[in-house]
Amino acid sequence: MENSSFNLDKMEVELIDGKAIYKLQTNSGLIIMNDLIGKTFKIHSGKEINCCNCGKKTAKSYSGGYCYPCSLKLAECDMCILKPELCHFDKGTCRQPDWGLQHCMIPHYVYLANSSGLKVGITRTSQIPTRWIDQGAIQALPILKVGTRYMSGVFEKLLSTEINDKTDWRKMLKGDPDEIDLEAKRDELFELFGEDLDDLENRFGSDKVSILESELVVDIKYPVEVYPEKVASVSLDKAEVVGGRLQGIKGQYLIFDVGVINIRSHTGHKVHLEL
Ligand SMILES: [Zn+2]
What we know:
The protein is an alpha+beta fold.
């Protein structure tokens, strides 16, 4: 069966009974991607990228799915989204203050996760557990709740002097990492950074910073039959068709027997599926 073409968007995710469920929005409705594990299918490139904001054709995708003008104009494409400690909302220079109010000037979590090993990260409270699944984390634990994205970025930067703030996606796709006692790690970090955390709490105001001492670890299982021994990445920038037997899904990656494809980095690519 061949679907009509549509613009790719990241897979929607849900955590049900500890399992990651993936759905892909297509022109003919939502496809539960977990049901395709063990099956063969292909993604055909429509050789066209449409900006996920304005819909215009763009030869290249910027900031993960935007045309060049939108990437310069939108707050979500600004450097402070990658580096939240650079948030400049308070200076009155946010590219889109309304967007900033809705997405950045709201409560965020700082969390520990185990994706390719221990890491620290931040997310809007509403993005839990989505953010963790998008990163392929098998365990996660919120450790701080703070008033804004900026504050979470400052805490993350502090903690990243001690632990990683990146996921090694190749390692993440080679298998599940060893389990980590995240609660013990949290307690260690609180011990180690006690004074710095107190200083930041005083700076931001104690009503804006909650140190979370007794949250529970969230465990996440991914629909993966077999992990690849070698991680070869495939993309529609290099090939017109990508696909094969689907062995698993983790993070935003489809793990085919012929290689892995990052669906998120194909946002806005026009495609059709051959199921
Ligand atoms: Zn655009």
